Amino acid sequence: MATNVWALPIIVGRFCPLSFPLSLSLIQGLNAPIISLIGLLPGFAIKANWLTAKLARRTQQVGQAYQPPRGWKLDPIVASTPKHLARRYYQFKTGHTPIGAYLHRIKARDSPNCLGCSRGTETVRHLLTNCRQWCHQREKLYAGLAEAGVKAPQDSEQCPEARLFQDPKATTALLAFIGAIREREDNQQAWEQAYKTDNWGIEALDEGEREGEG
Fold it and tell me: Transmembrane stretches, by residue range (predicted)?
């Protein structure tokens, strides 16, 4: 639909008596040619430059910061972390992290058991309190909690993970723990990929030799 240039002063707001407050979402709906037209109107060059700079900053910020689902209150500490770590943090917090219990519930894994230590169901609580695979990372987690004045999970607690994720003082230690887990997982995946690359074609070669012998 064609845009009425004469209506632009009303759209951009603040520059004429008929203007209404301008929201950033409305600005983002304007494409580059329209913003350029705004700059050609008398007295709107400064406004057009401001709009362009504002949109550029907003785009950069959106790319760097994690955007939680609508209605969620974003923890300021989590907001300052890389997007992939913030996403994993909220997966842990809501019980939707891709580990045994959740994967089994959505039928993505046959068993909910922990593949790291084989000592029961792999839940968030298990990772925070019992899993042998993450014992060194857990020691650092408990040290961070103690430094922040937060009590470490107790065996007698019914749901210690809920208490920790609801306490803002525990956020930094939890992020470090989750980040360490993710880093080790990424390193493991990189090693497996490198192994597959290094051994690419060997199985086919062995199979060919066996067929030749036959």
Answer: 30-50
Dihedral over alpha carbons 97, 100, 106, 111 (to 10 degrees): 180
- Walk along the chain (214 residues) and give the pLDDT tens digit of each residue: 444 444 444 444 444 433 334 444 444 454 455 445 444 444 545 555 555 565 555 545 444 455 555 655 678 899 899 998 999 999 999 989 889 999 999 999 999 999 889 888 999 999 999 999 999 999 999 999 999 999 999 888 999 999 999 999 999 999 999 999 888 766 655 545 555 555 555 555 555 555 555 5
Which two tokens mark 203?
């199985």
- Geometric angle at alpha carbon 94, from 67 and 65, rounded to 5°: 15
Smallest Cα–Cα separation from 124: which of 88, 87, 150? Answer: 88
Q: Which residue has 């497996």 as its token pair? A: 192
Tracing tokens 């350029």 back to the chain, one arrives at 36
Q: Where are the domains of the chain?
A: 5-64, 76-203
Contact 10, 19 (CB under 8 A): yes
Which residues share a beta bridge with 136?
A: none
DSSP 166-180: H-GGGHHHHHHHHHH
Other residues' Cβ atoms within 10 Å of the Cβ of residue 122: 27
For 202, the token pair is 């060997």
Q: Work out the angle at residue 192's Cα, subtended by the Cα atoms of residues 190 and 194, and round it to the nearest 5 degrees.
A: 70
